[in-house]
Amino acid sequence: MTKASFENPGVHLPWAGKPVRIEEAEEILTSLWHLSADNVRISQNVNVRASVLNFVICAPDITTAQRASSLLRELCSTHIARVILLILDTSESSPTEVSTWVTLRSFPIISDIMRHNFEQITIMLSGSALRSAATIIQPLLKPELPIYLWWLQDPPRDETLFSRLAQTSNRVIVDSESFLQPENSLARLAAHLQDTAENSRWALSDLNWGRITPWRQLVAQFFDVPTYQDYLSGIYQIEIEHAISPTRDTTGANGSSPTTPTVNTTRALLFSAWLLKSLNWQIDTANERNQHHPETGEHSWHTSHATGKLQLPGTDELLVHSGRGSITIRPRVEPALTPGSLCLVRILSALDDKHATFAIDRADGAEYAITSVELPEGTRHQRTVSLGQSSSRIASTLLHDELEILGHDRLFEAALNEVYRLLVE
Description:
Layout: E1 18-20, H1 25-43, E2 46-49, E3 53-59, H2 62-71, E4 81-89, E5 97-108, E6 114-126, H3 133-137, E7 147-151, H4 159-167, E8 171-174, H5 182-196, E9 203-206, H6 207-211, H7 213-222, H8 226-229, E10 235-244, H9 266-279, E11 291-293, E12 298-303, E13 309-311, E14 318-320, E15 325-333, E16 342-351, E17 354-362, E18 368-374, E19 380-386, H10 395-402, H11 410-423
Parallel strand pairs: 2-6, 3-4, 3-7, 4-6, 7-8, 8-9, 10-15
Antiparallel strand pairs: 1-5, 5-6, 10-16, 11-12, 12-15, 13-14, 16-17, 17-18, 18-19
Helix pairs in contact: 5-11, 9-11
């Protein structure tokens, strides 16, 4: 038999609002709306009730859930939602319980005179109630509105729990920057996406994909220049560096695990996969020189054959790659950067015995990079470009972008499938 939160004095979440029985959640929310309307008439403020989507957030613990709740204030007012915050207690020793809290959240639209309100329902599940998470939240979802699921931290090893919640959603959002087992979790996500691709309506996205967008744009801009386009067909080596902490100690000051790993190659892997797909490179998985060291963040792969035809951007012209290639990922100590941040992309090309190097190098953890092109004539073109906030963008900004998209991001999904092949096959 499940227990409501107010029957469990050991759980106190004042930030989550009023403890209620889950079957009373809608009724209590209605009464809170009525109370809010009365306050509007007294204070002559204007409170706007709106919902454009259902936003389900899955957190592994109370601390993570509270951070996510605080972050909701930073989302744009165009994404007002019915928020259901699920705290999933997967501890085997926890009894079966369903604890529920409800509250109204608000923030000013133009000034404090007019405010947007939205509803937040917080539910803590433990024991056998976890298996029924999708069924439990179903009556609380607003009908005929899209459902976004934000899964915090690593995807669970219990694929049934994740799958059932994903199948209720239109879009599933993760952030591989916070994965405690980055490469294993990325591979599990790719495998799960492949398994459900034919019979699933939900799309998958990763906030880290948004963080590497400016780097992908800068690489594409190199070859927007007509005089550089021929070098696309001669690319033979790609080098990528990602930031790591000065120490690789995997324990915190008190012997506890860190909230984020000191080595996280997810951005570098996604970027590598995007380049491989863009260049139509095929990796020789049997090559003995391929190396994988997840603990240090070092990887290298080799191609052993021509990669076929390559279409130049914006043209109908087709080129053929001239031979073998390699792609390398390695760490670089950058104390000022979040582990996993891209630091360097270097692309080497040879065409008719002429060599060219295209590079994007981040300087000392700054929010800018230096792009350079070294040509056979010895000329070196450099410019300093701003990375904006994209390289270290906070989750609220990235979520804002993701909540604008309902359908599949085919480019990301193709890159994720390529990552799976790099890590598993």
